[in-house]
Structures are given as C-alpha cells and as structure tokens.
C-alpha cells in the first residue's frame, strides 16, 4: 500500500479552505493547506482597495459552525469593511489553531492523479502526496488584467483592485485613473475621489448599482440576531440566496406558511402607465424593482424598469452630459451580479471627478503619462485597474490538473466547465471543488454555500472511511445531467439574456466559452439535491 504524506491536501486558505481544514482535522485526518498569500482570508486578503467591503450583512456573512464564535464576535457595521473581515478570518484561524497546518507563500503549480491519489507540486519546490485533493481556490481569485495597448510604457503606478498592495497606496494629491465600473470600481471610486487630487473614471459599460444602505450595526440588532441565530442559520440554509430574511427589529418566531396572511399578487410593470410607475418610484425608490413581478422575467418589462433607473441618474447627477454617460442601456437589469454602492452617482458631482466613456471614445493606448482615448489624453499618476477576475474556472485553469490517464482539466473544460453538483469532475477521482462551477456559490451568500460544501465533503469522506472505500468519482452521465439542469434553470432568466455579458458567462475574458457557470436554482434546492444524492447511496458517483 502506498504511504502518503497526507490524507488530504487543500489548496487555498480563504473561508472555504479554513473551514475544510478544521472539519477534516477534527475528523482525525492528516491535512495540509497550501496558500499563495502570507495570511488567511482569501478574497479579503487580496482585495484591500479603498472602499472594499462586503455587500451581504455581516451577521449573515459569517461562519455558523461554532456557536461560541458567532456569539462572541462583534461586528461594527451592517456590512463590514475589508479590514474587519480579514481580522475575523485571522481570529478564526487563531481560535481554532489552524495556522499550524497551513503553508503560506506557496502556490500550487500542478496536481496529478497517480497511484490512486494526488501528487501536488508547488512553486516552492514541494512535492506532496495525498489521497484526496480539495480545491478551495475561490471563484473570484484570479485578477483579470486586460491586455491594454501601451500598458508597459506607463511610467506611473499600476494597481489592480484584486491585488492591492498590503502596505497601501498613497493617493493623496495624485491624479488617479480608474478603469472598470463593476462592484470593485463602484466601491473604490467614491473613496478614491475623497483623497485624490483628481480622479478620471474610464468607463466601458455603465453599471446598474443600488444603494448599499450600510450603517453602523446597532447593538440591539446584533443582540436580536444572536438570540435567534439558530433559526437564522436554518433559514439561510434553506433559502434561495443564503439570506435568512430575519427582521431583527421584529424578531417573531417564524410562522407556518399556512398562518401567514396571503399577500395580493404583485403588479406587472407592463400593465402600468408612465405616471403610475413614476409614482411608484416616488413612493418606493429602489424597492420598485422588487414590486413588479415581471421585471426580471420579461425583457420588455425590464426595459421599462431601466427607464426609471436612468431617470434616477438624471435626477442625481448635475451635469447632463455626465449623467447621460453613466446611463446603462442595451442590457437588462439583473443580468450581471447586482452592484451595491455608497454615494456612487453623487461622486460625479464633485469638481475633482470626471468620466470618459470608452464606448464614445475608445481607449487608444496607455502612454508614458496617462490614458489616450478618442477624446484626447488624460494624464494620471496612478492607474487603478478595477477590471475584475477570470471567475470560477480561472484559479483551476492556472494549475495544471491531470486526472486519470493524464487527462488535463483544462482540456476537459475547453468548451466550458462541467462538474457534478459543482463538487467533482468525471475523470478526476478524489478531487473536489468548493463553490465550483455548477454550484450556487457566487449566486448566494457564499459562506452559506461554503459551509454546505465543506460539510458535504466531510460527511462523504467519513462515509468512505466507514465503508473501507478509497476512491470516488462521478459518472459522465450524472455530470451531464447536472449540467443540463444547471442550464435549464438559467434559461429564460436575465442572466442568460442574449444582450447580457458578464463574468458569470465568462464573457469578460477573451476566448472563454460563453457558458453560464453557477447554479441559479437556489441554495435550498441545491442542498435538497445533494441530500437526495446521499440518500440514494451517493447516486451518480462511483465509489470503490
Ligand atoms: O469586476 P467586474 P469587479 N477596458 O468584472 C471593465 C465580486 N465583488 O472586480 O462591463 C475597459 O464586475 C468592465 O467593463 P465591461 C462581485 O461578485 C464583490 O468589479 O466588461 N474596461 C467592468 O466595468 C463582483 O461581481 C464585492 O464592459 C474594462 C469592470 O472592468 C465580482 O467580484 C466587491 C476592460 C470589471 O467589472 C467582480 O467585480 C468587489 C477593458 N479592457 C467585487 N476589461 C462586494 O462584496 C474590463 N473592464 C461588494
């Protein structure tokens, strides 16, 4: 029998890798975690750009696995900023003594299935062998630096939001350019504008962004959550997107569906007159978009909603030309990941902020001193790339992963990723992905998905030990059926509208096949599907 260094190697020490380590170590397994950064935290370790914060309430974007932890930890804001979340990750790593099994500053280069287990090689020259290999590499961990002409000739400083230097970047008194207006750009722009001498935003696609409504977390709200955490966490696990819907100001015990008063059906925006929908906007503001039931189902309805959205921009942004540039058109609301902001549009009323529309004036080249577009050259000292990530598959693609018979995962996924339940790939025995393509991951409060996947894998490995099994792999048929299901539930949603481009579809990366990658069916439904697979004796997997 082969002697292996470890039972399991885990790649990545973000929230997924840390919890996976804890569970497997508690189960008595020999585990080693390999992490490229110098510390734990994953996303929250790398994304230190000004304004970086979570857009999920921290009381729900936190681990549920340890009641003492969730009772003792105090959050200061409803949606915490990056430094506080990183502190939390560090605290967890210390509290559960995780660091002793994590090797930092180590990037995995290859993972090869041989002799019934995995051999993992790193850039530090390590060679580790293990029975199982778990990729906790994150969905948004490989930053995308587009191939901008002339970028190398720029004599100022270039920083990517997803790789923001630990020591920070001094923006005071500087002329700053930001390229990109997704979640990262929209968070960074208002904060950079407060410090920089001048900020120019280079925008390719105008964004739909909703107010985050972040605020300090009230003591009574935190207390109410903690008193009801059992119920809150249960609700999160069986919800659509990993949110409990708990109202801490009216913390009633949940009622049976039958006892709830029946709500009248929501109206359709297509049935309204312009005056009626404007009156609705006056009354409900951004909640208007949840008031009409057809907005996210019907492209014509969606277009009416986007008209309201553009009228809102015109009302907030003082300069009509700037307002016009900021108005999204030609793609539906709800097709990309919803962006949340604090004072985004107000920022464009500042005298030190300008916007250049790259649709109107395409980027010609980066020069030694700035950015040249059809509208002329803008000189900048610092260029911030808020240009996103090679999402979901990027981190796995960067590792040379070889399964049975030397087959490369890159080749298997050449036409788009395929994975059974987003957890395992046919041809790659004993390899797991946490929040992989085909799982709800990025469409959910991701910690809820992470905890589910980790626990599911842990229980599977326990089952295998109990039954003397050493190998698991999905069948090609199960993988295909799941892929079909993932596509079916995404069809007809705004996510896959023909006019939609998004990183969910891979369309932000040149040459990446257009395929909607996450599972839109909801975390509750996904959990039920995973439970059913287990109840049917790990249906769709071959165990030996
Ligand atoms: O990346 P993005 P992100 N020339 O891909 C532009 C999570 N997140 O880092 O739309 C010019 O959304 C690109 O333009 P276009 C969250 O899940 C969460 O902002 O491709 N522009 C777009 O404007 C989020 O969805 C939080 O035309 C170029 C921008 O760069 C995900 O991470 C905070 C370009 C990229 O937007 C990714 O967000 C931050 C080019 N060559 C991130 N290439 C919170 O929790 C790209 N762009 C709040």
Short description:
With 544 residues, the protein is α/β, with parallel strands linked by helices.
Written account of the structure:
- This protein is an alpha/beta fold and 544 residues long.
- 31% of the residues lie in helices and 16% in strands.
- It is built from 17 helices and 20 strands.
- It has helices at residues 15-26, 43-46, 67-72, 82-95, 183-195, 219-227, 229-237, 274-284, 288-291, 299-316, 320-326, 344-347, 394-397, 409-412, 446-466, 476-490, 523-535; strands spanning 6-11, 31-34, 102-103, 108-114, 117-122, 127-135, 157-160, 175-179, 198-203, 209-211, 339-341, 353-357, 363-366, 370-373, 376-379, 382-385, 400-402, 431-433, 472-474, 541-543.
- Strands 1, 2, 3, 4, 5, 6, 17 and 18 form an 8-stranded mixed β-sheet that branches. Strands 7-16-8-9-12 form a 5-stranded parallel β-sheet.
- α10 packs antiparallel against α11.
- The longest helix has 21 residues, at 446-466.
- The radius of gyration is 24 Å and the shape is globular.
- The mean pLDDT is 96.
- Bound molecules: 3-acetylpyridine adenine dinucleotide (N01).
- The site of 3-acetylpyridine adenine dinucleotide (N01) has 24 residues, from α5.
- 3-acetylpyridine adenine dinucleotide binds at residues 54-55, 140, 146, 161, 179-185, 187, 204-205, 337, 358, 386-389, 442, 503, 508.
């Amino acid at each position: 029998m082969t002697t292996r260094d470890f039972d399991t190697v885990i790649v990545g020490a973000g929230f997924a890798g840390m919890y996976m380590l804890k569970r497997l170590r508690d189960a008595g397994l020999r585990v080693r975690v390999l992490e490229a950064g110098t510390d734990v935290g994953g996303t929250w370790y790398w994304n230190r750009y000004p304004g970086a914060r979570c857009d999920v309430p921290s009381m729900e974007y936190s681990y549920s696995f340890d009641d003492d932890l969730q009772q003792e930890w105090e959050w200061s804001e409803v949606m915490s900023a990056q430094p506080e979340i990183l502190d939390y990750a560090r605290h967890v790593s210390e509290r559960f003594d995780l660091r002793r099994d994590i090797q930092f500053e180590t990037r995995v280069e290859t993972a090869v299935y041989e002799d019934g287990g995995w051999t993992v090689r790193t850039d530090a020259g390590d060679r580790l062998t293990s029975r199982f290999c778990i990729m906790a590499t994150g969905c948004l961990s490989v930053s995308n630096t587009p191939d901008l002409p002339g970028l190398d000739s720029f004599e100022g400083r270039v920083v990517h939001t997803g790789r923001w230097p630990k020591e920070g970047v001094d923006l005071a008194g500087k002329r700053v350019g930001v390229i990109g207006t997704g979640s990262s750009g929209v968070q960074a722009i208002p904060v950079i504008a407060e410090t920089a001498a001048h900020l120019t935003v280079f925008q390719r696609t105008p964004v739909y962004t909703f107010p985050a409504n972040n605020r300090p977390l009230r003591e009574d709200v935190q207390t109410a959550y903690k008193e009801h955490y059992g119920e809150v966490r249960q609700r999160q696990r069986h919800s659509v997107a990993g949110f409990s819907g708990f109202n801490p100001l009216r913390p009633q015990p949940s009622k049976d569906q039958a006892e709830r008063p029946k709500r009248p059906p929501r109206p359709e925006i297509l049935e309204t007159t312009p005056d009626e929908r404007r009156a609705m906007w006056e009354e409900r503001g951004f909640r208007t978009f949840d008031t009409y039931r057809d907005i996210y189902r019907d492209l014509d309805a969606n277009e009416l909603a986007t008209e309201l959205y553009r009228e809102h921009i015109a009302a907030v942004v003082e300069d009509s030309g700037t307002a016009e540039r900021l108005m999204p058109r030609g793609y539906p609301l709800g097709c990309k990941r919803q962006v949340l902001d604090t004072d985004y549009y107000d920022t464009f009323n500042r005298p030190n902020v300008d916007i250049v529309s790259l649709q109107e004036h395409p980027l010609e080249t980066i020069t030694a001193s700035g950015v040249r577009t059809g509208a002329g050259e803008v000189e900048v000292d610092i260029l911030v790339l808020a240009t996103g990530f090679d999402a979901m598959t990027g981190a796995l693609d960067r590792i040379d992963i070889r399964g049975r018979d030397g087959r490369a995962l890159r080749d298997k996924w050449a036409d788009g990723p395929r994975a059974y339940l987003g957890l395992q790939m046919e041809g790659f025995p004993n390899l797991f992905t946490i929040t992989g393509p085909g799982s709800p991951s990025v469409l959910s409060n991701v910690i809820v998905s992470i905890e589910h996947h980790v626990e599911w894998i842990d229980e599977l490995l326990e089952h295998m030990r109990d039954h003397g099994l050493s190998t698991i792999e999905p069948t090609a048929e199960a993988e295909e059926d799941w892929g079909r299901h993932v596509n079916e539930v995404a069809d007809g949603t705004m996510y896959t509208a023909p006019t939609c481009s998004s990183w969910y579809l891979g369309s932000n990366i040149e040459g990446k096949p257009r395929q909607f990658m996450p599972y839109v069916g909801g975390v509750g439904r996904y959990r039920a599907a995973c439970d059913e697979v287990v109840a049917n004796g790990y249906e769709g997997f071959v165990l030996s």
